[in-house]
Structure formats: structure tokens, C-alpha cells
Amino acid sequence: VQLQASGGGLVQAGGSLRLSCAASGNISSINAMAWYRQAPGKQRELVAAITDGGTTTYGDSVKGRSTISRDNAKNTLYVQMNSLKPEDTAVYYCLLRTGAYVVYWGQGTQVTVSS
């Protein structure tokens, strides 16, 4: 299974970005997909997750400013992030968990928010 994340970049505070993560390979079933992020010197933290049934979970730091979604036909995960803040600067990683609870990570995409 390969996860290709894209959509990161440099944005001014208050702006928006939409990250995408395309999953490919031998995917028999997907239990959940998620976005995590890691800022320099900090632990990796949950941004948002979505289960196969469509249940969503958001990290406290992005709650109310982000929306996670999935295109099941394309095996693609998205997260729309609005009202971005400098503290949102991080490398954003996508995760896929299969029905057998095997976890795969993508390579990450850099998001930089300037003040």
C-alpha cells in the first residue's frame, strides 16, 4: 500500500489549504484514514480521522477549522483547513488502517503558515 500526500505549501495566516492523500496498491479493505501532523520538536498529533462508516474525529487544535472527507471510489482522503495559524505549521502525514488493523503512513507534506 502506498499513500501519496499532496497539497501542502506556504500560506498566509488566515488562509486555507486542502490536503489530499491518494492510496494505491493492494487495499483489500480500509477501516479508517487519518491525518496527523508533526511540528519541529513536537510529538506527532492527530489532525482528523474518518472511519469506513464516515465517523469523524478532530484534534482539539483544528476543531472547527478543518473538515476531513473521503472519496471511497478513488481511495483518496482530503482535509480542508481554514483560518490557518502559524502554529499549524508542520509536516502533515496521512495514515490508512486496513480492516486487519495494519497501519500505513504516507511520506508527509509540508504546510507552512506565515504570520
Describe the structure.
With about 120 residues, this protein is an all-beta fold. Helix content is about 0%, strand content about 55%. It is built from no helices and 11 strands. The chain has strands at about 1-5, 10, 15-25, 30-40, 45-50, 55-60, 65-70, 75-80, 90-100, 105, 110-115. Strands 2, 4, 5, 6, 9, 10 and 11 form a 7-stranded mixed beta sheet that branches. A 4-stranded antiparallel beta sheet has the order 1-3-8-7, with no helix packed on it. Strand 9 (about 90-100) and strand 10 form a beta hairpin. The protein is globular. About 30% of the residues are buried.
How do the strands and helices of this protein lay out in sequence?
Blueprint: E1 2-6, E2 9-12, E3 17-24, E4 30-38, E5 45-51, E6 56-58, E7 66-71, E8 76-81, E9 90-98, E10 103-105, E11 109-114
Parallel strand pairs: 2-11
Antiparallel strand pairs: 1-3, 3-8, 4-5, 4-9, 5-6, 7-8, 9-10, 9-11
